[in-house]
Design a protein that fits this description.
This protein is an alpha/beta fold and 208 residues long. It has one domain. Helix 3 links the parallel strand 3 and strand 4.
Length: 208
Amino acid sequence: MKRRIANIAERKRVFLGCEGESERGYGRLLGDIAGSDYHFDLHVLHGGDGPAVVERAVRKLITEQSKDYGTYAVRAVLLDSDRWGKSPERDANAQAAAQKHRLRLIFQRPCHEALLLRHLDGQQDRLPHDADASEKALKRLWPGYKKPMVAKGLSARRCGRSRTGRLPGRRRHYPPIAAQQLKSFWCPFFQKGTACFPYTFNSTHTGT
C-alpha cells in the first residue's frame, strides 16, 4: 500500500529588519501571532540614523536573497522616525534604495517605546514628542518594562489554546495586550492570504 503524502503549504517568508534587540523581540511576537503561514527572518541592524539602518537592511536583504531559501513575500524594516530627516539627500538615497529592492520602510513614531505604548488599552492615539517622553509614558503604565525588551520580556501574559484553532495542553506567550489587538494593529497583514504589511495604520507610517 502506498503511503499518502500530505500536502504541506509553503510558508510565506518575511524579511524584517530591526534597529535593535527590542524590535527583534517584537518581531518574534508578530511571527508568533501570524502563525504557521509565515516564517519571519529577523535581522538586527544595530542602530544608527535612519538612512544607515536602511543601507544595512538593503545589504542584508541582498545577502539573504542570494541563499536558496525562496523569495520573500514581505520585505520591511522598522525605523524610528526621530532618527530620520537630518539629511534630506541621504534620506532620499535610502528611500530610492529601499524602493529598488521593494523594502518597505515602517516608521515608529517617534520610537519603538511609543509604538509599544499605543498597543496598551486607551493609549491608541498617544504620540509623545520624543524618545524620553515615550519611555517615561510607557513605564508609567508598564512598570516592568526594561530596554532592550526581548521576546521573553514582552510575553507577560499566557493564553491557552482552545478548541477554536488552538492546540490543547499548550500555552503561548503574548505581550501585555490582547492577541486580537496586536492583529488589528497590523491588519491587513494577518488576513489569510495577504502577503504585505499595511501602508498606513494609526501607530506608524511608511516612507515609501
